[in-house]
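I had to read the description of the data format several times before I understood it. Each protein is reduced to its one-letter sequence and a matching series of backbone shape codes. The format is easy to grasp once an entry is in front of the reader. For illustration, here is how one protein appears when written out as sequence plus structure tokens:
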Amino acid sequence: MQFRYAYTAGKEAVVRHELERSISNYVKEIIPDAHRLYSKRTSSSNKGQIRQDWRNVINKEGQEINQIYIEMYKERADDSSYYVADVDLTK
């Protein structure tokens, strides 16, 4: 699944937060037992331009029930700037 949010200078953190919330809501929709996401590992590549996250999907009992991989990066298109996140279930 891919998420795209347009942003303007100075609003990057706000848009990144909205993007993370959308990802969390998406996971909760496709995995009904999901309670929260727990960051397992984060890395950056391409001189920090691409952020890679592996997150555990945790249920209400605190047990890992799945994992997701998130690749987040900035993109320019049509004279606008976007935060883009590609999300994949890994289990």
